[in-house]
Design goal:
The complex is a heterodimer of chains A (about 260) and B (about 240). Chain A is mainly alpha-helical. Chain B is of the alpha/beta class. A 6-stranded mixed beta sheet of chain B has the order 6-7-8-3-9-10, with helices on both faces. The radius of gyration of chain B is 18 Å and the shape is globular. Classes of the chains: A mainly alpha (about 260), B alpha/beta (about 240). At the A-B interface, helix 6 of A face helix 2 and helix 3 of B.
Chain lengths: ~260, ~240
């Protein structure tokens, strides 16, 4: 190998290898979709872990994001005498961008890291090898329920984050900007009635599509990182860190492209 | 039944297997001893298809392991059991569920048949009372016996033991060795064992082989090997046993 090849092998090969493994896992999960009835119990367990266990954090973060948006936008709009529009701005920002992204970040930090740590520990303790040796389908048994559970729960959590975010904005609008609650909510609802599609606003569909894709991506990245762990406890640490880092990077990049796709 | 022919394996600069040859007939037991890091476990991993030779071939039940596709390998593995050094039990599953796992995932057996089969192998390793416990709630020796039960539940014709006595006290180690011997005598199982324990080798082996630097230094009946004049073998195994 010449020096250029060596540099390429060290810098480019590992991320390409990780991406390829993750893509293979994602396709493996899609191929196993007919297994849902067989994996229902474990999928419901994962939905509980992804959804119920992170619910409070998602609601807490969503509420504060809504308050922050209302506070910052409200003061700026007030300079132009447009503070009544704060409901509109908070609702659009929460539903289209902040709720899907912040929910995904919370899920990446709490669930993808847990998936990577759990599967990583199984990998370094030879439990994954044991499953292989017993001819147990590792993707079907371990990855499929996690990915499907997360994919189904992410949109639900995102909707709840949007609702509490808008309510958080209402608290600030009423207490800090002197707006009345019903006016704020009417304004917020107006923003969402625009471009309605099958009775629901386009913003809500956009939010659901983003959440679905983010949930799928985060779970695949978490599982792929765990299954590639090696070298004992430090390897599990590295895989957990990689899961959170790669998930957040992918969320940001996908958010841009999905937003562009839906709104242009 | 098992045939290893001129197998070479290299990891980076390290030549771990240097033309290894051996065969094990049906119902016979080969025990491989050797210093830590000498590549004994690499041999086991070739047998189960987790590694493939750089050169040479591994034949199990008449099939060349390296030439099998994933489905063929899975089919072959159904005929083989593997007892891991650290048992490798799934932590969130109970003892019962750990043993039932391969049956639930790879067969179409009914719930009742699975339960009956699991209870049968639990009886074989004398672990019926621990069926509701989790791996973290039982001792290392018990975990090893559960691992053995899991390896046996699919009724394999070949069983591979990777340091079955590792981490066990002498009494438990002897108990596991006797269980291995019983399986060979009563069920006619073919086995390959990697171990550091001379007692285990004496209890289980039809053929004992000492492995170092990628080659077998010696192989033959256990008493013959233990009383060999080979200097390195004597150093490794200690004083011969009468």
């Amino acid at each position: 190998m010449n020096p250029l090849q060596r540099i390429g092998a060290r810098t480019l090969a590992p991320p390409i290898e990780v991406a390829g493994f993750g893509l293979g896992l994602a396709l493996g999960v899609l191929r196993r979709l007919p297994q849902i009835p067989r994996r229902l119990r474990t999928t419901l367990d994962q939905m509980y872990l992804c959804g119920v266990k992170t619910l409070l954090v998602v609601l807490f973060v969503g509420f504060f994001i809504g308050m922050i948006l209302a506070l910052q936008l409200g003061y700026e709009l007030a300079r132009y005498g447009q503070q009544e529009a704060v409901g509109f701005a908070v609702a659009v920002a929460m539903v289209r961008e902040m709720a899907p992204v912040m929910t995904a970040v919370v899920l990446a930090a709490s669930v993808a890291s847990a998936m990577a740590a759990e599967l990583g520990t199984m990998k370094v303790q030879e439990e994954i090898t044991a499953l292989d040796v017993m001819s147990v389908d590792v993707c079907g048994y371990l990855v499929f329920p996690r990915v499907i559970g997360m994919t189904l729960m992410a949109p639900i959590l995102t909707n709840l984050a949007s609702i509490v975010g808008i309510l958080g904005g209402a608290v600030i609008a009423q207490t800090q900007l002197g707006l009345d609650f019903s006016g704020y909510m009417r304004n917020a609802m107006e923003s969402l009635s625009d471009n309605s599609f099958f009775g629901l606003p386009r913003g809500v569909y956009c939010s659901q599509i983003k959440a679905l894709i983010f949930g799928f991506t985060i779970a695949v990245v978490g599982c792929a990182s765990g299954l590639q762990a090696q070298n004992g406890a430090s390897g599990v640490g590295n895989s957990t860190r990689a899961a959170v880092r790669n998930s957040i990077i992918l969320i940001i990049v996908l958010n841009f492209f999905l937003g562009k796709l839906v709104y242009t | 039944m098992i045939r290893f022919e001129n197998v070479h394996k290299t990891f980076g600069q390290q030549h771990v297997l240097r033309g290894v040859d051996f065969s094990v007939d049906k119902g016979k037991s080969l025990v491989i001893m050797g210093p830590s890091g000498s590549g004994k476990s690499v041999i086991i991993k070739h047998l189960i298809g987790l590694l493939h030779p750089d050169q040479g071939s591994v034949h199990i039940l008449g099939k060349d392991v390296a030439s099998l596709d994933q489905a063929g390998l899975q089919q072959l593995r159904k005929d083989m059991g593997y007892l891991f050094q650290h048992s490798a039990l799934i932590n969130w599953l109970s003892v019962f569920d750990n043993i039932a796992l391969p049956l639930r995932e790879t067969t179409s057996m009914s719930k009742n048949s699975i339960e009956a089969k699991v209870m049968e192998v639990l009886g074989l390793v004398k672990m019926e009372d621990a069926r509701h416990k989790f791996p973290s709630q039982i001792s290392g020796g018990m975990q090893k016996r559960v691992g053995l039960a899991r390896a046996l539940v699919t009724e394999p014709s070949i069983i591979l033991y990777d340091e079955p006595e590792a981490g066990l006290d002498p009494e438990m180690s002897a108990s596991v060795s006797h269980m291995m011997r019983r399986l060979k005598e009563e069920y006619g199982m073919t086995s390959v064992t990697v171990t550091h324990s001379v007692n285990c080798a004496l209890t289980v082996a039809d053929t004992l082989a000492v492995f170092e630097h990628g080659r077998f230094l010696i192989s033959g009946p256990p008493t013959e090997v233990l009383n060999s004049d080979h200097t390195r073998v004597r150093e490794f195994l200690g004083a011969p046993i009468d």
